[in-house]
Design brief:
Helix content: 25-40%
Strand order of the largest sheet: 1-4-3-2
Distance between the termini: 26 Å
Radius of gyration: 21 Å
Number of strands: 8
Largest sheet: 4 strands, mixed
Structural class: alpha/beta
Number of helices: 5
């Protein structure tokens, strides 16, 4: 049976509205130094400063604090954005190292050679880089941090269908959730049960 055609066992909210976003418009974070952020994303990342907004209150909530909102544009027109809010306290430290590892934004490069060129460029500008890292022959990636402590990834697909494995994705999702539920029923440690599952599936 072709896993790409399999239907999910559970109902995972399969587009009942018929609506799907067309592209990433922007992802936004807080910066404590908009000048350093602008330098990094224009000079190091090669993005163009796309737009700015500033005001003395938040339009969506009405909260009264001044902010400067800045957008940096990528090749497809999508943007990364930041808010500088004077007087804002520093970010709290995450409660577990996994937050700093897994929470990131991945930016696509055209090919493997471009990923290598990105590494050379970043290192030559004093940016500490991890990688290239091969993700199961699906993606090749570099990892580094911007001046705000946000983890960035430069990646390129090494599998042309990397984001079209829908059937397998539903199977994996169902397997993962079922293993967690089974661990709860058996009063087992969920992380231990999942490590056991992963090692079994990967033949370790």
């Amino acid at each position: 049976m072709n896993v790409q055609t399999l239907k999910p066992v559970r109902k995972w909210g399969l587009g009942a509205s018929g609506l799907t976003p067309t592209m990433l418009n922007h992802a936004a974070w807080v910066t404590h130094d908009v000048a350093a952020t602008a330098d990094f994303y224009t000079r190091i990342m090669g993005m163009e400063l796309a737009s700015t907004i500033y005001d003395d209150h938040v339009p969506s909530t009405g909260e009264a604090f001044p902010y400067f909102h800045i957008f940096f544009r990528m090749g497809d027109g999508s943007t990364i954005a930041f808010f500088e809010v004077p007087g804002l306290p520093e970010r709290a430290e995450p409660s577990h190292p996994a937050y700093r590892v897994f929470e990131h934004i991945a930016l696509e490069a055209p090919d493997v050679e471009a990923v290598r060129q990105w590494k050379e460029w970043l290192v030559s500008n004093g940016v500490e880089v991890i990688g290239p890292v091969d993700h199961d022959e699906m993606l090749l990636s570099l990892y580094f941090y911007d001046p705000n402590g946000i983890r960035l990834e430069i990646t390129t697909p090494t599998d042309a269908e990397w984001n079209r494995h829908t059937g397998q994705g539903y199977q994996d999702l169902e397997m993962w959730v079922a293993a967690k539920e089974k661990a709860v029923r058996e009063n087992r440690s969920i992380p231990e049960a999942l490590i056991e599952l992963i090692r079994e599936k990967k033949g370790r």
